[in-house]
Specification:
Radius of gyration: 21 Å
Distance between the termini: 28 Å
CATH superfamily of the largest domain: Metal-dependent hydrolases
Largest sheet: 8 strands, mixed
Bound molecules: N-(iminomethyl)-L-glutamic acid, fe (iii) ion
Helix content: 25-40%
CATH class of the largest domain: Alpha Beta
Number of domains: 2
CATH architecture of the largest domain: Alpha-Beta Barrel
Number of helices: 16
Shape: globular
Strand content: 15-25%
Structural class: alpha/beta
């Protein structure tokens, strides 16, 4: 048995629970000064002060790791990304700076369809190579679990290629990858004007194969005006749910569209974006235990108003924060930027930001029993900071404070 003990952490800060922290509970972190964590075979066996754990678990075979005055936290969970793609969309970004809207560019044949063309032309090896570089960047920022979506292939071969790339990376990279099938990201050019037929194609020809080969845990849909209607989204999500997928939805991003209401109706694990969520939508998430995943880096990059984080939390919802890293609306994987936007622009407290990046991110991936907090029985996914308090995460605005990362009991990154 591999035994490890982290000692002398100036501070340990963690949310508590095996489910998302909702409403007020998001602000309640457990704090231990001069903390220690005892780990057996990658799983947390005990948490306490350094004195308590040394007295209880001292053993010559235990590997000791001194946290040297760091604050330690659960590994960050980026529960919404599109990190596997070919090509870039620099010109679109400049066009947006010059005043074109995201949807204008999409209607003109750019946007997602442009990345679809580049991703179809990319090789599996090429997607794995760029995917690894992107994961390395996430790891340096303390991410220990990431969600990755397909959705830049749309046809059978290329969707499978994206999902395969993530499967291979999951096997070889320290970051755990949770995969999502997002064939309903856009109506592909070959189905233009025939979105119903495209939904049928996904239900009949793609989802069963994805399921059979265990290539995705979640099914997601971009439910938005001029993309997939609420009815189309509902049909797809219900079919996917019946096949055993857990569900996610890109909802109420550009217009208030009934996406959050649908998320509650079909029992999505998370509803994401929510810039334009209605009061009925908030109620639907609350009543059905759907985690509200907010993606403020996208709002920042598109120069749009932020999702109503305060209202969601004050209504009792569970909020997660994620990057939405993708080549179009948000080519930004920055965890420090994400946390700063959460606290400064969305008025979340620093404690709520921590819960949103850890336990609630895990809940958005259906993994809150395994990771997302520092508690007995959970995986030892731990971030060590250069400072002695979690409060520096926002105070030292925009800087990466991650000094060391442990994944399942092993140090996988150190600077
Ligand atoms: O979550 N909103 C839809 N999908 C992505 C954008 C993807 C892209 O622009 O390539 C998002 O923002
Ligand atoms: Fe997205």
């Amino acid at each position: 048995m591999a035994r490890t003990m982290i000692v002398h952490a100036a501070q340990l800060a963690t949310p508590i629970g095996k489910k998302a922290a909702k409403g007020k509970a998001m602000g309640e972190l457990k704090i231990i000064e001069d903390a220690a964590v005892y780990i057996e075979d990658g799983i947390i066996g005990a948490i306490g002060t350094t004195d308590e754990l040394i007295a209880a678990f001292s053993n010559p075979k235990t590997e000791m790791i001194s946290a040297e005055g760091s604050c330690i936290l659960p590994g960050f969970i980026d529960s919404h990304t599109h990190f596997i793609f070919g090509g870039y969309r620099t010109d679109e970004f400049i066009a947006r700076l010059e005043g074109k809207s995201y949807m204008d560019i999409m209607r003109m044949g750019g946007g997602i369809q442009s990345t679809v063309n580049s991703t179809r032309n990319a090789s599996l090896a090429g997607l794995i190579k760029s995917g690894k570089e992107r994961l390395d960047s996430m790891l340096m920022q303390g991410v220990t679990t990431v969600e990755g979506k397909s959705g830049y292939g749309l046809d059978y071969d290329c969707e499978m290629k994206q999902l395969q790339a993530m499967k291979r990376l999951d096997e070889s990279h320290p970051i755990d990858i949770v995969t999502t099938y997002l064939g309903a990201h856009a109506v592909p050019a070959e189905y233009k004007g025939k979105s119903e037929k495209y939904i049928e194609y996904m239900i009949k020809d793609i989802l069963p194969e994805v399921r059979k080969n265990s290539l995705a845990k979640f099914c997601d849909v971009f439910c938005e005006e001029d993309v997939f209607s609420v009815e189309e989204s509902e049909r797809l999500l219900l079919a996917a749910g019946n096949m055993g997928f857990q569900l996610k939805i890109h909802a109420d991003e550009i217009v208030s569209f009934g996406g959050a209401e649908l998320a509650g109706r079909v029992k999505c694990t998370s509803a994401d974006h929510l810039l334009m969520i209605s009061d009925d939508g908030i109620k639907s998430l609350l009543d059905n235990d759907v985690t509200a995943t907010l993606l403020p880096c996208t709002a920042f990059c598109l120069n749009k108003p932020y999702a109503p984080a305060r209202k969601l939390i004050d209504s009792g919802c569970a909020v997660a924060l994620a990057s939405d890293f993708n080549p179009g609306s948000c080519f930004a994987d920055s965890i420090p930027l994400l946390m700063a936007l959460g606290a400064i622009n969305m008025k979340m407290t620093v404690e709520e930001v921590v819960a949103a990046m850890t336990l609630n991110g895990a809940s958005a991936l259906g993994m809150a029993e395994e990771t997302g907090s520092l508690e007995i029985g959970k995986q030892a996914d731990i971030v060590f900071l250069t400072y002695d308090s979690y409060k520096f995460l926002v105070y030292n605005t925009g800087s990466n404070l991650v000094k060391k990362v442990m994944k399942a009991g092993k140090i996988v990154y150190e600077r």
